[in-house]
Design goal:
Blueprint: E1 8-12, E2 17-21, E3 25-30, E4 38-40, E5 51-56, E6 60-67, E7 74-80, E8 83-90, E9 97-117, H1 120-123, E10 128-133, E11 136-141, E12 144-150, E13 155-157, E14 160-168, E15 172-181, H2 192-208, H3 217-229, E16 231-232, E17 237-238, E18 261-262, H4 265-275, H5 279-293, E19 303-304, E20 315-316, E21 330-331, H6 342-356, H7 363-379, H8 398-413, H9 419-442, H10 466-469, H11 478-491, E22 492-493, E23 496-497, E24 515-516, H12 517-529, H13 533-544, E25 556-558, E26 563-565, H14 571-597
Antiparallel strand pairs: 1-2, 2-3, 3-4, 3-5, 5-9, 6-7, 7-8, 8-9, 9-14, 9-15, 10-11, 11-12, 12-15, 13-14, 16-17, 18-19, 20-21, 22-23, 24-25, 25-26
Protein name: Glycoside hydrolase family 15 protein
GO molecular function, one term: hydrolase activity, hydrolyzing O-glycosyl compounds
Pfam families: Glyco_hydro_15, TREH_N
Length: about 600
Amino acid sequence: MPAHIEDYALIGNCRSAALVNRDGAIDWLCLPRFDAPAVFAALLGNEENGRWRIAPSDPVEHSTRRYLDDTLVLETTWTTASGRARVLDCMPLGEHNAVLRIVEGLAGETAFEMDLVLRFDYGRSVPWVEKLEPLTLSAVAGPDRLILRSSTETHGRDHHSVARFRLRAGERQVFSLCHQASHLPVQPGCDVDHDLQQTIDQWQAFAARCPEVGPYTGLVRRSLLTLKAMTYAPTGGMVAAVTTSLPERVGGERNWDYRYCWLRDATMTLLALMNLGYFDEAQAWREWLLRSVAGNPEQMQIMYGLAGERDLPEFTLPWLPGYERSQPVRVGNAASEQRQLDIYGELADAMTQAIKGGLPRHPRGSAIARSILPYLESIWREPDEGIWEVRGGRQHFVHSKVMAWVAFDRAASLAETTEEDRERGQHYRQVADEIHREVCVRGLDAEGQYFVQAYGSAELDASLLQLALTGFLPPQDPRFLRTLEQIERRLLRNGLLLRYDSDSCSDGLTPGEGTFLVCSFWLADVYVLLGRQQQAQALYERLSGLCNDVGLLAEQYDPVGQRMLGNFPQAFSHIGIINTALNLYRAQCPARDRARSG
C-alpha cells in the first residue's frame, strides 16, 4: 500500500532535501539542488524508480520517530521481538551533498536489511554501479556520480545494492551517500561523527534564536526549521515545496512542480522572519528578490528558479505513473509565464515590511519601484490569471486589483521627504484611490452586498480575506463582514476553507481539490482582527492538529478522507503557522499584561 503524504519526514541541507517514509525508505531526493532530477523517485512511482530503505528484516512490533531537539536530524526507533534499534537520518549542512544514515543497536539484537535502488533522471536511468573498494560503491550516469560508503559490505541483486546485518546494544553501522560530478576524481568521504554533531549544533543554534511565543513556540520553531531547510543557501531563495506533482486531488491532473521561488511568498516570509528576529535570513531573502526582479518591469515573473532563473519550461515525465496514479507528472511550471497583477503588491508590501522591520533601505529597491510602479499603472485595469494561477483564461480578479492597490498604497506611505518624492507619493496615493473606488463598485455582487472573486462573477474566493488583512478595508466594514459570511457559508468544508469552489468555477481543469490550508490560516487571522479570539484559537488548534507526527504540513487537506494533499512540506502552510501564532500571541499579550497589573 503506498504511503500517504503525511507519512513522510523531511531532512535537508539548505541545498536539497529528502523525504523519509515511516517504513525507513527515502522515497524522494533530488541532487545536487532542489530542482535537479531526482535520484530517488519512488514517491511518484515505485521502488524501481529509486529509493533507499533501511529497516528491520524481522517483524516490527513498534516504531516511533522524532526530530532530535530543534534539528532536522530524524530519529526512527524500531522494536522487534529480539531487540530495539534506531536509525539517525540527516543531510549534513555545508557545501557537500550527502545523506547520512546511522543505525545503532539499543537493546537486545536487531536484524536489519539495507536496500539501495539508485535511479537517475527521475527514475528513468539505471546507473553503472561498481565497487571502488570493498566498502565503497560508485554509481555513474551521465554527468552525475553517487558514492555509497558503508561500514558493512554490500552486494548487487537485480540492479539493487543490498546488505544484511545484525546489531547488538552499543553496535552501529554507518552509511553515507554523496553526490559529485562524474568527471571529477572521487572525493574523500565525510567524517561521520563530526558532520553529525556539527549539523545538530547548527540547527539548534538557528532554532535557539527564536523568541518564546507562549504555547505556540514549539510549532513555530519547527516551522522555522522547515522554512530554513527549504531555503537554497547559495542564493537565499526559498522553494514553495521540495516536491513536484503531489496531487491536489488523488488520481487527478492538478499536479504541479513547486520546487521554485514564488514572489508572493515574499510578503509573509519576510514578515515571519523579521517578527521573529531573523534579520540575516530576511536580508538574504530580500537580496534574492531584488536580484530576481531586476530588469525590465514588463518581464517581471511570478516565480523564478533558485538562483533567479527565468526559464522554467513545463514538461511531463510519462515513465512515472504518478503518486497513486495521479497524472501527469510535471517538471517545470508554465505558470511562470502568466500575468498575475498581485505580485506587484506583494513585492511592494515585502519591501515595506523590510523597512518597517528595521532593514535599511536598499538603493536598488527604490530604483526598481520607480520602474515598476509606472508599468503597473499602465496595466492594472487589465485581466490576469490571478493568485491561484488559473488555466481557464484571464479575468478581472478582485484580489489582483486589491494587491495593485497595495503596491501604490505602500509606495505612497514610503515616499521620502524631498519635493520630488512627495509629488511622486501624492501621485501614488491618487492611483491607489482610483483603484479602491473601482474595486468597491465593480468588485461587488450584482446586489452590491459583498465582494466576489472577479468582476461580474457570482463566485466567492478565500483570497478576498485579504481585503481586511491588507488594510484595503477596515475589518468591521459591512461589505467585508458580508463577504466573510458568504465565504464561511459557501467555502467551508468540515471547518476548513476551499480557496474557491472548483466545481462551479471555470479554472481550466477538472473540478475537485482539497481545502487550501493557508486560506484557513487567513481566516483565523481575520478572526483575530475582529476580536473573535475563541474562534481564531479553535481554528488554529484545528489546523495545527493536522500536522503530522513530526510537525509538517502539505499544501491542502482532504477533510473527508482525512489526509494531506498537494506538495509537501508547503512553505505557505508553515508561514501560516508562524504568522497566525504571532497574531494570536500578540492579541493575548494585552490581556495577560492587564491581569498582571490588576
